[in-house]
Amino acid sequence: MPVNIRIPTPLRKLTNNEEVVEVQAGTIASALVELQSRFPGVQERLLDEKGEVRRFVNVYVNEEDIRFLQQQETLLKDGDEVSIIPAIAGG
Q: Which of 6, 12, 19, 1 minimizes the C-alpha distance to 60?
């Protein structure tokens, strides 16, 4: 099922400057695997050594944080929009 992933500006150099990438995925985990297979280097910026989404990366499905859903096992359906948003530090 097609799902759109919004790519944040800092990662677009890895996606040939694509702002939105369409993947065929049923979960967040499979969407990230497909993203990595098409754009090597993306995964290491999004996932830690345990394969978990990095603490400073927020992933949303239709504006809902996956941390409050089923994390990487969050199910995706046709037409969902996944947003990857790096946390911004500062003060």
A: 6
Cα–Cα distance for residue pair 29/67, rounded to 1 Å: 13
- Of 24, 21, 22, 19, nearest to 8 by C-alpha is 19
85, 60, 57, 38 alpha-carbon torsion, rounded to 10°: -80
Of the candidates 89, 84, 88, the residue with the CA atom closest to the CA atom of residue 4: 84
Residues paired with residue 3 on neighbouring β-strands, in sequence order: 23
Fold of 2-86: Ubiquitin-like (UB roll) (3.10.20)
| Model confidence, pTM | 0.90
| pLDDT of res. 89 | 66
Domain residue ranges in the chain:
2-86
